[in-house]
Design goal:
Layout (H helix, E strand, L loop, with lengths): L2 H35 L4 H25 L10 H43 L16
């Protein structure tokens, strides 16, 4: 078998395994965060979590597939390692950027919710005062 094909098979296997591992980790640990962002609505948190995981898979596996091809032919074992390190490094960077992007957006949503909760008075007003003429 051609060394280039061997590199492709290894690249696909490792990239898909990494994508699945990261998606499962984000899904399990992100559910608690989503429940907080969505004010304890567990069903909505589960639905949003599932949609985020599906989107994560689509974007990352699409990138892995598009990044598979290359112009170079691999001549020796060293070439396999060099090609794999470059391709897998880029895949890992994309996975990291996707993760940080998700956390950033969810944190912005969470902060907005916290600010909205803090703007409400802790108790209802007990009386109303008319504005004074000098103010």
């Amino acid at each position: 078998m051609d060394r280039t094909v061997i590199a492709y098979v290894i690249y696909l296997a490792v990239s898909i395994a990494l994508t699945i591992w990261v998606a499962r980790t984000l899904s399990c640990n992100g559910r608690i965060f989503l429940a907080d962002v969505l004010h304890g609505n567990e069903k909505l948190a589960d639905a949003v979590n599932h949609l985020l995981v599906v989107g994560f898979y689509l974007v990352n596996l699409g990138f892995v597939a598009l990044y598979l091809g290359g112009d170079e032919t691999i001549e020796d074992t060293r070439g396999i390692f060099e090609a794999l390190s470059t391709k897998l490094g880029v895949v890992l960077l994309v996975l990291g950027v996707m993760h940080l992007g998700n956390v950033y957006v969810l944190n912005k949503i969470r902060r907005r919710g916290v600010m909205e909760r803090e703007q409400l008075p802790p108790v209802t007003p007990q009386e109303w005062l008319a504005p004074t003429a000098g103010a």
